[in-house]
UniProtKB/TrEMBL annotation, chains A, B:
<dbReference type="GO" id="GO:0033540">
    <property type="term" value="P:fatty acid beta-oxidation using acyl-CoA oxidase"/>
</dbReference>
<keyword id="KW-0560">Oxidoreductase</keyword>
<dbReference type="InterPro" id="IPR009100">
    <property type="entry name" value="AcylCoA_DH/oxidase_NM_dom_sf"/>
</dbReference>
<keyword id="KW-0274">FAD</keyword>
<keyword id="KW-0812">Transmembrane</keyword>
<dbReference type="Pfam" id="PF14749">
    <property type="entry name" value="Acyl-CoA_ox_N"/>
</dbReference>
<dbReference type="InterPro" id="IPR037069">
    <property type="entry name" value="AcylCoA_DH/ox_N_sf"/>
</dbReference>
<feature type="transmembrane region" description="Helical">
    <location>
        <begin position="12"/>
        <end position="33"/>
    </location>
</feature>
<feature type="domain" description="Acyl-coenzyme A oxidase N-terminal">
    <location>
        <begin position="38"/>
        <end position="76"/>
    </location>
</feature>
<dbReference type="InterPro" id="IPR055060">
    <property type="entry name" value="ACOX_C_alpha1"/>
</dbReference>
<dbReference type="InterPro" id="IPR012258">
    <property type="entry name" value="Acyl-CoA_oxidase"/>
</dbReference>
<feature type="active site" description="Proton acceptor">
    <location>
        <position position="365"/>
    </location>
</feature>
<dbReference type="InterPro" id="IPR046373">
    <property type="entry name" value="Acyl-CoA_Oxase/DH_mid-dom_sf"/>
</dbReference>
<dbReference type="InterPro" id="IPR029320">
    <property type="entry name" value="Acyl-CoA_ox_N"/>
</dbReference>
<keyword id="KW-0443">Lipid metabolism</keyword>
<dbReference type="InterPro" id="IPR036250">
    <property type="entry name" value="AcylCo_DH-like_C"/>
</dbReference>
<dbReference type="Pfam" id="PF22924">
    <property type="entry name" value="ACOX_C_alpha1"/>
</dbReference>
Length: 604, 604
């Protein structure tokens, strides 16, 4: 590999802490489990990630005394059963019921319909003997919405399902094949009143209901998990880039100049154009993930002081960025895989696994389109406040500037057309203007719908495409802004130069990908020429930039992405060790295949 | 489902023949095998698709007499060994050697390096006892390039590999898990002179070499296979759309208007915006696939008459369209999968398999970027001819128009800015202008590079991004043109109206996706509003439009995409039948998991 010579080491030292932070946050549980328990952590993943934390945060004192010792000693193995066959992101639609019976002081749990069967919870199919079940609480003839209940599923000794519990595996999936995602059908399952998690809401022995003190408390967890997913995006994309870029210096193919040896495929402009913008994206998302966890921890401090001011902005931002980063990473991993040619399809590249493991993030913890629309709701609310003359603070404050600018009649024509495309602050400004324009467009679309006498809800749905575009532009602006701000923290000038080029490539490439939007706000120049120059400038440091992610070969698990570049010999070696290549009885073929001509039987 | 009422049946009758044609071409071999041999055709797929056809087309009379009976009786089970560990699309780079030894009248085959090991051929790992091996032919001290040799790999009786043959499976892959893709290392393997396929090129007993009569003969097969892949794209995308659109009418979620029941998710504008452009694309690619096979068969007739005139255009078009349609379909399938929410990840949706089986088309039979550059080479050649005043015919003739138009100084400003966005011929014109502009831009980029005194080859590589963009625009223009032309064949006015809306959506959506390009050629108006109207107009017929693809439930193999819409019950049923849910020894858990506490051992 070409190395980053003197500056590499300091680049590593700059990136590594950033990355460690991400790793700590995104993979904390997995890494912990990896260390403690080897590779078979999946079946117990939900016990650590959802069951235990729920007990810790929602048990009252009595409940903690009973359940925590059982759970931490693994006598009670648990999972978290929320989604149902017919219901996912829209929580209010869940159908499972928990009806209080004061005569026995028990809750009676039921799955009243096919669509109400719990579906997807990990570790439910085979592993768990308990679950936290989310159900609509009915007491004294009234429904009080979703609450959490501890339900024992299986005998703690024999592991046989208890009466009324129909539980099993939901069958094979794309990715996560190791996890026993399960179903759970409840038929008049009775649990003691004390099994409702009662730290906040309560049901008294007589059946009277006490409301929780605040509804905002659940926001924090969602924000936390979504910010972890942003970090996970950076992490997965960095892995994929590491493999593809390293392998692109090992693989030689075709010819650029006739008669000369086959060049490294990373010397092809098209290959650089596939991979370098993704590399820049991996860096960008790393910084965004870092920012998200910092701000989360700062705001958590505020929340503990009773200050909820910044929570709505963070909540909206985490939703949009979760969608923005997972979508980009999802398609980016596949670009990396396909950029490795045929060998990218081999599991030896690790890329198929990286994709299959990553892709569910686009759906879980909030389906991406729904997430984008959540962010849009916040943007539109802020837009209205700005229109009403309110001074906005935080990231959406640009909506105020737009308001001021609109005093001029035609902002687009009045704006200077000369944009210095090498000045990142100029580009941040372009992204900001684009975001403001698209928020404005979405708001106008809703306005037009309302003028056609549509209801508020229909106007919203009929403008949903524009709303998603506005959220996307907002998130893109935030990412470019954070990447740019990060540069000021880099002291070493050589590293600063390289990372600045990455930031520039990220910003300019994004502009060309949505060139229509940017043309409308007046910035689009010789960008494509500049992008080609940047590809050339980044080429010598490309491998160093992925080495700086500092993935150990054991973590990367990729023959194509090996640090030492010794790909082909190890690929041959890896294939030889495949189970299909271990000793085969020499008479196997004759005995089992040719005898009776089974191979050609029509309905084998 | 909402049905297409009266017109549905005639829509089916219009689409079905089109689709049957595609199916016949794309799945001919698979379907045949399906019928003859049940589902276990994969291991013999290569025998039918590559080994037998190669024998038929490249054996001389003597060889046919010997090999065809062996192969058709399945005594010789064969595959086609071309790609190597270090070499794929660039055929000239292959390293396997076949050196003629006149003293024994044998060829000696060798894998001289690690990178020369044959890698990826299907059915090589375990199934085949013979292979057609592509190798560099050396005789009388000279290399004559790649030729095909029949090499026996295994004993035909015991199936044990012969001396000098190191053969095995290459290990797990993304998709194609049933196929034993293999490796083959040759160590001084001697085969008789008669095992070189000698219909065209020959080696005489004394070692003298006779050249084949024409090099163009191999073009035909490549064109044929690539046009099949275009049809396969249509087929796979149609399947994915059928599943996603049907399921989107079964799934209810959230609320549009508060208090009303949860709507079908297909009523959300964002869901329509994900799926309807893909539905339109599936129709578009169906017509393109149909066109490709028609033109292939017409030109094949010409070739048999010795007329090679149209072959270069078809060759260039098939390369670009192969890349264009497979890339679009590849990402489209994933959009369909994710549009089904969580259940899209379940194998019960069939979408994970559709993706894993389809995605290799982006790489095999010519890596897509290389394909795009092949088309670009033809476009640039045509562009130069047009510049030189030559009158072009066929699909590239628009490059002549551009030449004429450039007599005006500023074509963009001279063009009328009012484009009727409901007139498809107008939109075809926009796509044509965009293609012409991007071909021109790529040519100028090369020119500028040459002016910087770069070599022709470097100028080409330094303009590769522009060249790929030009090819992409050319292909997009061809697809819009063919879709538009197809409309004139539809007699029924109701069907014409619906399919016209699909064509319009395809064209307009494409414009918004590359809005920068289209703004530069002067056409971009109230397109996004029109797209939203089209989504509404297509909504009532969406299910009918996928039903018209006429996939039988047995072919679709998707619980989510069932024709009868009875999804949830069948999903529960499907899960129950999963191997993990069949009878489990009630003491299993206690005996094997808890005893010895294996579950928690660190390095299980």
């Amino acid at each position: 590999y070409k190395l980053f010579s003197k500056t590499e080491k300091s680049l590593v030292s700059f990136i590594v802490p950033t990355f460690l932070l991400i790793i700590v946050f995104t993979n904390c549980v997995c890494t912990m489990l990896d260390m403690i328990m080897g590779h078979h952590h999946e079946a117990l993943g939900l016990h650590y990630v959802m069951f235990l934390p729920t007990l810790y945060s929602q048990c009252d004192r009595e409940q903690s005394k009973k359940w925590l010792p059982l759970a931490t000693s693994f006598q009670a193995l648990g999972t978290y059963a929320q989604t149902e066959l017919g219901h996912g992101t829209h929580l209010r639609g869940l159908e499972t019921t928990a009806t209080y019976d004061p005569s026995t002081q028990e809750f009676v749990l039921n799955s009243p319909t096919i669509t109400s069967i719990k579906w997807w919870p990990g570790a439910l199919g085979k592993t768990s003997n308990h679950a936290v079940v989310l159900a609509q609480l009915y007491t004294q003839g009234k429904c009080h919405g979703l609450h959490a209940f501890i339900v024992q599923l299986r005998d703690m000794d024999t592991h046989i399902p208890l009466p009324g519990i129909d539980v099993g595996d939901i069958g094979p999936k794309f990715g996560f094949s190791e996890v026993d995602n399960g179903f759970l059908k409840l038929d008049n399952v009775r649990i003691p009143r004390e099994n409702m998690l009662m730290k906040y809401a309560k049901v008294e022995p007589d059946g009277s209901y006490l409301k929780p003190p605040s509804a905002k408390l659940t926001y924090g967890t969602m924000v936390f998990i979504r910010s972890l997913i942003v970090g996970q995006s950076a992490f997965s994309l960095a892995k994929a880039c590491t493999i593809a870029i390293r392998y692109s210096t090992v693989r030689h193919q075709s010819e650029i100049r006739s008669g000369e040896p086959e060049p490294q495929i990373l010397d092809y402009q098209t290959q650089q154009y596939k991979l370098f913008p993704l590399l820049a994206t991996a860096y960008a998302f790393t910084f965004v993930g870092q920012y998200m966890s910092q701000i989360y921890h700062r705001i958590t401090g505020d929340i503990n002081q009773g200050d909820f001011n910044e929570l709505p902005e963070l909540h909206a931002l985490s939703a949009g960025l979760k969608a923005f980063t997972t979508w980009t990473t999802n398609s980016g991993i596949e670009v990396c895989r396909m950029s490795c040619g045929g060998h990218g399809y081999s599991c030896s590249s690790a890329l198929p696994d990286i994709y299959a493991e990553f892709t569910p993030t686009c759906t879980y913890e909030g389906e991406n389109t729904v997430m984008m629309l959540q962010t849009a709701r916040y943007l539109l609310k802020s837009y209205k406040q700005a229109k009403a003359g309110q001074q906005l603070s935080g990231i959406v404050s640009y909506l105020n500037e737009m308001e001021q600018r609109q005093v001029q009649a035609h902002p687009a024509s009045a704006r200077p057309t000369v944009v210095d495309i090498n000045d990142l602050s100029n580009l941040v400004e372009c992204y900001k203007q684009r975001a403001a324009t698209l928020v404005d467009l979405a708001a106008r679309s809703i306005q037009q719908e309302l003028q056609k006498r549509r209801s508020q809800e229909d106007a919203w749905n009929n403008s949903a495409i524009d709303l998603v575009r506005a959220s996307d532009a907002h998130c893109h602006f935030v990412v470019v802004k954070l990447f740019t701000e990060k540069l000021s923290e880099i002291g070493d000038t050589a590293i600063h130069a390289v990372v600045s080029n990455l930031a520039l490539l990220y910003a300019l490439h994004g502009i060309t990908q949505s060139s229509g939007d940017f043309l409308q706000v007046g910035c689009m120049l010789q960008i494509s020429v500049r992008i080609k120059e940047l590809l050339c400038q980044l080429r010598p440091n490309a491998v160093a930039l992925v080495d700086a992610f500092d993935f150990h070969d054991k973590k990367l698990k990729s023959v194509l992405g090996r640090y030492d570049g010794n790909v082909y010999e190890n690929l041959f070696d890896w294939a030889r060790r495949s189970p299909l290549n271990v000793f085969v009885d020499e008479n196997y073929f004759k005995k089992h295949v040719f005898s009776g001509n089974e191979l050609f039987r029509p309905d084998l």
